[in-house]
Amino acid sequence: MDVSRLIEAIGATLGLAAAGAVAAVVLALPIAVLAARYRGRLIAAVEAVGFLGHALPGIVVGLSLVFFALGAVPILYQTVVVLIFGYAVLFMPKAIGTMRNGIAAVPENLVDVSRMLGLSPLQTWWRVTARLALPGIGVSALLVAISVMKELPATLLLRPTGTATLATELWSRTTVFEYGAAAPYAATLVLLAAVPAVVLSGFRGVAKEDL
């Protein structure tokens, strides 16, 4: 087993998972807030656009971004920027659904009381809504991170040259029937995916303390 290559794959996988989760949460947060607090055709349309990635296979998103990058911004082709954006498009729906539920669960009377005490809308969001919705935001980030770890088609198409994740290393070995060499990558991927279960229990503890 090539230990150094395994370590490199772990580092790349964790780095991309974290970046993809942050990008998806940042893009999904405004949509989740609107969907949780407001109703109307425009809001429904915006939310539907955010969920488009749920209906698109990774290979479709990957090929579309390859076409776009080569035609519009060739300098970004096969860069981490395009890869992370692809992850955000694919997995933003996971973030929207979880965060929307978390934000909607925050009692509106607490928001009203905060405003009556003189806090601005931004202060109210940060001190009340965001704090109570933090477990939902954290869960959404973890769900996206797990999805990024195992995403293969988009990663193969968009990754920078020389970048290898656990999923791509596993794929490259199984395609040539090197199952023994693929086993460490598969086992490591399973272990990394199990870590969020421990983190999620911490988020539940935070939620109980805040309530």
Q: How would you classify the helix and strand content by structural class?
A: mainly alpha
What are the low-pLDDT stretches, counting only 5+ consecutive residues below 50? Answer: 206-211
Summarize the main sheet.
none
Tally of helical runs: 9
Please estimate the helix content: over 70%
Q: Gap between N and C termini, in Å?
A: 49 Å
Q: CATH superfamily assignment? A: MetI-like
The value of Rg in angstroms is: 20 Å
Strand content: under 5%
What's the CATH C level? Mainly Alpha
Which fold name corresponds to the CATH topology?
MetI-like fold
| Global outline | globular
Give the tally of structural domains: 1
Describe this structure in words.
The structure is a single chain. The chain is an all-alpha fold. It has a single domain (3-210), classed as MetI-like (MetI-like fold). The protein contains 9 helices and no strands. It has helices at 3-37, 41-50, 58-72, 80-104, 108-116, 121-150, 153-158, 166-174, 179-210. It starts with a helix and ends with a helix. The model is unreliable at 206-211 (pLDDT under 50).
The gist of it:
The chain has 211 residues and is mostly helical. It has helices at residues 3-37, 41-50, 58-72, 80-104, 108-116, 121-150, 153-158, 166-174, 179-210.
Q: Can you tag this structure with a few keywords?
A:
disordered C terminus; 9 helices; MetI-like fold; mainly alpha; 211 residues
